[in-house]
Every structure is written in structure tokens, then in C-alpha cells.
Amino acid sequence: MAPIQLTAVVTPQPGKAQRFLDLFKVCSEYVQANEPQVYRYEIHEGIPELNGGKLQFVVLEGYENQEALDKHMKAPPVVALLKAIEKEKLTETQLIMTKPSSGVKARI
Question: Where is the ABM domain (predicted)?
């Protein structure tokens, strides 16, 4: 099966950004230690003054296949993050699932 990439645009509710970042850090550490089939798991902070004053994050994730994504979504820190987002109303999030199409991948 083809690789799966996920992009999420995350807008934290006022006063909730640090809580979201703390939970994401725990997920990131778990991925690094336990999920070799996840080849990308990073967060980028938007620049509010260039984005209409909004604080936003862009999360970029890459999985070898659907099985890797399914396993990741069941990982304890990810489950905790998703529950906190819902229960504590931490963020508004738009998810976009993608597959490679065209363009320049990297020049690094």
C-alpha cells in the first residue's frame, strides 16, 4: 500500500496553545521511540503577524501505509491528545489526508 501523509491545520483556543503543544511533544517522543513506520511527525508554528493575527500550527505526518497510521492512532499518547482536544476543547483542527502528486520533494 502507498504511503499516507497527513496535514493538519490546528488553531488553538485562546489560552490553550501550550497545553496542546505539551501533549503533542509527548506524542512526538513516543513516535520517535516506538514507531519506526512513521517517517515524518513534526509541527510548525505559524507566524501570527503574517496570518491575520491568528496563532496556528501545521502538523505534518507521514506513514509507510494505512496499517502504520492505524497503529499510530491507537498509541496511548495519541489517544490522550485526541481525548483532550475533544474534552477540553483545545483546538479547531482541519485534517487533510494526501498522497504524493507532483512538485519538488526536497533539495537538502
Answer: 4-98
